[in-house]
């Protein structure tokens, strides 16, 4: 599968097409006149699906983030587009506007409540102490409730603006990609066994949120599971482990096994949720399987590097140093160190040691849209004329 489908076209053609897509995304119009049962997407998540919410609240992002597609930082924790961007594109929808972005947002086709560093459970500390976002899943749900209330109020007054119609909520896709920070945030201090103790609360909160959204009118939910964090360059460089804990591909077995336990717990919780709201579609999406294959067999997918970060600094094989994150410069022991980006992010699975590259996001989106990773099976290709990913 070619992750660079435009490589045979002229640079001028590529620039024109990118400019057109960006214009359509900004204008809030569908990118096509294609048939699709879903007229909007409402997303809940963390940095893996944040399209600019966190940096709208706390402006700080800089290059090289955004270098591949947008050519500038646009609030995404990667070099280009995220899986949620590709999903929107496939459904013929514009990129999702962050709920927290007050300038330039258009919510006629949904909203994105995700923010970088978000957790499912309410944080017990401040962003400025531990770096955990204050916009946990419960806050994102409250924002969604407020959004619906504002839509209802606006239509009652005959004021529409860039808001969707009142009946949009039953015609939307609700996506979740959250839980990674609950899992990884305390690994170094509590260890795997310590983290496992509160994971049942995490899955219960996700299940409860789905039921609340059902009351608001939601009927179709895609819940992405947890990625194989034992393959992340950042954790390979930071978390304690020995060589016997590494598999043949260089990933940490114990951490990945703990992820599998969590994912099984999430899958079971969604099964119970499905029984509680039988007229809704609650779909478990196994992104873990896709990403694990990318990390372990990058060359088979047209990539080169699995457990090495594109953007980082470090003498280790992972190109990651926790003291100097991607795009930052620091003076350490009298030496000025800068974590720079590679020139070929399309060859990497990992962008900055934690987040996937646009190339990996695109390949994962391809796999999801194929339908092979839905449980139970979900006929997305029959409900929508899926558009090609460019």
Automatic annotation (TrEMBL):
KW DNA-binding (keyword) present: no
SUPFAM superfamilies, alphabetized: SGNH hydrolase
UniProt KW keywords: Glycoprotein, Hydrolase, Signal
Highest taxon, organism lineage: Eukaryota
Keyword Acetylation: no
Pfam families linked to this entry: Lipase_GDSL
Molecular function via GO: hydrolase activity, acting on ester bonds
Residues of the signal peptide: 1-28
Family: Belongs to the 'GDSL' lipolytic enzyme family.
Protein name listed in UniProt: GDSL esterase/lipase
């Amino acid at each position: 599968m070619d992750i660079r489908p435009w490589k045979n076209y002229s640079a001028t053609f590529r620039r024109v097409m990118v400019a057109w897509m960006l214009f359509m995304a900004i204008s809030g119009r569908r990118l096509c006149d294609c048939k699709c049962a879903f007229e909007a997407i409402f997303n809940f998540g963390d940095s893996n699906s944040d399209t600019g919410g966190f940096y709208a609240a706390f402006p700080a992002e800089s290059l090289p983030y955004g270098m591949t597609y947008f050519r500038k930082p646009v609030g995404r924790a990667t070099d280009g587009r995220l899986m949620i961007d590709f999903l929107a594109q496939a459904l013929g929808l514009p990129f999702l506007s962050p709920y927290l972005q007050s300038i330039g947002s258009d919510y006629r086709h949904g909203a994105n409540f995700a923010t970088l560093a978000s957790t499912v459970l309410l944080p017990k500390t401040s962003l400025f102490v531990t770096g955990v976002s204050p916009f946990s899943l419960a806050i994102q749900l409250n924002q969604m409730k407020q959004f619906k209330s504002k839509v209802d109020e606006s239509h009652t007054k005959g004021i529409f603006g860039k808001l969707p119609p009142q009946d949009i909520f039953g015609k939307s896709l609700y996506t979740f990609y959250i839980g990674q920070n609950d899992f990884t945030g305390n690994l170094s201090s509590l260890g795997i066994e310590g983290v496992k103790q509160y994971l049942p609360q995490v899955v219960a909160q996700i299940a409860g949120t789905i039921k609340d959204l059902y009351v608001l009118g939601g009927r179709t939910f895609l819940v992405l599971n947890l990625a194989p964090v034992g393959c992340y360059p950042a954790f390979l460089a930071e978390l304690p482990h020995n060589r016997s804990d590494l598999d043949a591909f260089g990933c940490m077995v114990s951490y990945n096994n703990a992820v599998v336990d969590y994912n099984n717990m999430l899958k079971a919780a969604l099964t119970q949720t499905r029984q509680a709201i039988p007229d809704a579609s609650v779909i478990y999406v196994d992104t873990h399987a896709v990403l694990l294959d990318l990390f372990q067999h990058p060359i088979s997918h047209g990539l080169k590097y699995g457990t090495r970060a594109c953007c980082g600094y470090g003498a280790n094989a992972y190109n990651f140093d926790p003291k100097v994150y991607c795009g930052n410069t620091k003076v350490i022991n009298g030496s000025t160190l800068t974590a720079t980006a590679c020139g070929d992010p399309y060859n990497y699975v990992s962008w900055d040691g934690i987040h996937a590259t646009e190339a990996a996001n695109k390949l994962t989106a391809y796999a999801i849209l194929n339908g092979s990773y839905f449980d139970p099976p979900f006929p997305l290709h029959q409900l929508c004329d899926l558009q090609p990913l460019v």
